[in-house]
Amino acid sequence: MRVSAALLAGAAVTGCAGPDGSEPGEIAGRFLDAVDAGELAAACALLASDTVEALTTSSGQPCAESLEAPLPAVGSVATPAVDEWSGWARVESDRGAVYLTEGSAGWRVVAAGCVPADDGGPDLCVVDN
Question: Is the pTM of this model over 0.85?
């Protein structure tokens, strides 16, 4: 099962909208849909600037060439969950967790394709800053 942007946005109905009116679930869904469709420039536009910098620095390539498409499936999510705290959000999806931060431009993705570490440490992410 692929979690669509509409389903993620619906999960965030009680969430906090960013300055541009977008909810974190909506941004996470748009990011995942863009990556799945191979629209990597559009996906990069939804990343936080620190994440773009980390991707381009580590790969030596532009952001769109640094993203893995599609993100690997990690299992199905029956009901997407959106957790928010102090300008941060975590959105569950079938492509792993997506972490977002809220800034002056609205919600932006800081990490995606995240799964829990076996040792109980921080999540391991495909896209990370």
Answer: no
